[in-house]
Amino acid sequence: VNRPLDIQKLVARLDQQLDQSAPEPYRVLVVDDSDAMLKWLELTLGRAGMQVHKTHDPLDVLLLLERHKPEIVILDVYMPEYEGDEMARIIRQQPRFDGVPIVFLSTETNRPRQLMARSMGGDDFLVKNMPPEELVAVVSMTCERYRRLRQWMTRDSLTLLLNHTTLIESLETAVPRAVREQDVLSFVMIDIDHFKNINDQYGHMAGDHVIQSLARLLRLGLPPGALVGRYGGEEFAIVLPGVAPLHAAHLIDALRQRFAAFPQGAEKVATFYASFSAGVAPLQPGQSAQQLVEAADLALYDAKARGRNQVLL
Ligand code: GH3
Ligand code: MG
Ligand code: MG
Ligand code: MG
């Protein structure tokens, strides 16, 4: 006897695998005027699987922060030109680096002096000559916690797609880049059809499952480089750098067909089918990110007006 396939269970497992695939090594920046200390840090953290960038020149710190996007900075306090806490203050003045944890690593054992360094923007103060496994533990725990925090801040919790703010920020970065590189870029707005009816007929839980199923399809079905976000409620937005509008429309239409054929349902709910409408807009010369969103929105509106379950360019 064939038991019915438990789709939700399969899907939960798939999500788990997707989220666990290939954990990236922690990226660490170490700053110390002693080359011996830098070597030791590189060896100790490198052996623990971390990616270590090092410098003995505090003036390089901002450049290296920009270039390697480290997830933590380990900072010496006593250095010839700049003291570490001064450096921490400078890092903290840059809003884009405000979320990077800074850990001091120094011979200083004087508590008031340590506190002063922390008040300049440090998150922790470690004393040198600590056992290597302790250092590795502190760095891993700190990176892990900040990764989780960043995920909460940039992702939508129901779908794990980019949230509204992050998606718009990504678009505002992608548009000038496309202009600079003279590359095409397409933007897509998606809205699930008659979603209110789905909620009314099958309940909000079933509605949530529909949103999640579309999110999964978008996460798996788009080329690498695509930025996929939940724009709001049952609305999604996609930035496709390097993808021409016709190609974008075909990609989205293929997903539209798969979505419309996907049996929906939750526990104790009859199987039903959902669909979405989408508007695609190419980045036009001189267009701002906001104008691009408006253009895609307009195309979406047309797709709705023409009967839904279709993609319009
Ligand atoms: P249309 O085809 O014109 O898009 O019709 P619609 O019913 O989808 O349009 P509308 O935008 O008016 O309805 C969206 C509904 O989605 C309203 C809101 O109650 C519901 N909704 C928004 N966010 C969520 C959510 O996270 N979960 C669920 N279950 N419902 C949501
Ligand atoms: Mg020193
Ligand atoms: Mg809507
Ligand atoms: Mg809708």
Automatic annotation (TrEMBL):
Residues in the signal sequence: none
Keyword Methyltransferase set for record: no
MF-aspect GO terms: diguanylate cyclase activity
One GO BP: phosphorelay signal transduction system
Residues bearing PTM 4-aspartylphosphate: D76
Domain Response regulatory: 27-143
Enzyme class: transferase
GO cellular component terms attached to this protein's record: plasma membrane
The name this protein goes by in its record: diguanylate cyclase
Catalytic activity: 2 GTP = 3',3'-c-di-GMP + 2 diphosphate
GGDEF domain location: 183-313
Known EC number: 2.7.7.65
Keywords: Phosphoprotein
